[in-house]
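user: can you give me the structure for this one chain? tokens are fine.
assistant: on it. calling the predictor now.
[tool input]
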Amino acid sequence: MAVSDQPDISKLARKLAERFHLNVMERALLPEGKMPWSTFANAVDAIIAECGRYPSQWADDTPYSGIVLESVPGGYSLRPTVPGLVSNPCDHQPG
């Protein structure tokens, strides 16, 4: 496979981070069928830099059960979310 024919794994990581899905052909492009964690983490970091949170589609009035990563000064805030439940963020500062 020529260099120009190599898949752009970072674009696939971005799609996976945004849509939570890759199709069969896209998964077949991944080295050994696997997404490097660092590549996926970089995609999530880019989304947080652009939108201030991940998943970017989440909003206070959106029914979503899970964890939302939000950008805060000096790090990230982890906010557990459950529809109908008010939660307080848990700040994490790298270091």
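assistant: here you go. The two ends are 41 Å apart (CA to CA). The chain has two domains: 1-51, 52-95.
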